[in-house]
Design brief:
The protein has 244 residues and is mainly alpha-helical. 57% of the residues lie in helices and 3% in strands. The protein has helices spanning 2-10, 14-31, 44-49, 55-58, 68-88, 93-114, 121-125, 131-145, 164-174, 179-203, 212-215; strands spanning 150-153, 157-160. Helix 5 crosses helix 8 (131-145). Keywords: Endoplasmic reticulum, Membrane, Transmembrane, Transmembrane helix.
Length: 244
Amino acid sequence: MAQAVEEWYKQMPIITRSYLTAAIVTTIVCSLDIISPYKLYLNPNLVVENYQFWRLITNFLYFRKMDLDFLFHMFFLARYCKLLEENSFRGRTADFFYMLLFGATVLTGIVLIGGMIPYVSESFARIIFLSNSLTFMMVYVWSKQNPFIHMSFLGLFTFTAAYLPWVLLGFSVLVGASAWVDLLGMIAGHAYYFLEDVYPPMTGRHLLKTPAFIKSFFAEEPVVMARPANVRFAPPLVDQVPPN
């Protein structure tokens, strides 16, 4: 069993493995009272006035206490982060990292701006950790890129992946969790989906092009399609043969 888990962990792509490891370690360390969550949560005043810039990162790593909700989010983090990195972003590690950076920036900006708006500022003031929202963003992006996959929720009913974020949002409301956390993830996910998959074909402009300095941190591996063994491929058609 332990060996199987180790193999599964080693086979994870680099960003998924790093994020999952950081999230689990941070949550365990806080659960053991080695580090207080109060030193990790998003506090704009402490970031600006006391230069505690690490809070801009650590608030995405802590997933509250280790309970069923924690396991639930670790499952979604491991599953959908891995699916995105291995499929949609296969061979594009830098682009995947930039997607997460974009999502984290959008989520942070929404919370900061929302905290200054009357009538909703109280709701945003309670959102001090954005880890769940970033995970939900990945679920949303995956559902948009794979809308026709059939899924089942707890074996109760089936639906296509396009409705997965809404099903999870409804479940969160039913169990008494804050809908804002999931909604923020959906907003950030839709912003990325629109700017990456909808806007470029419409205008011919790509606003989310990954900066060169981020690409320099990652060694991109070319995607190679392996030829199956013992399979003969048909020769090209006559009109496909290039002239001499």
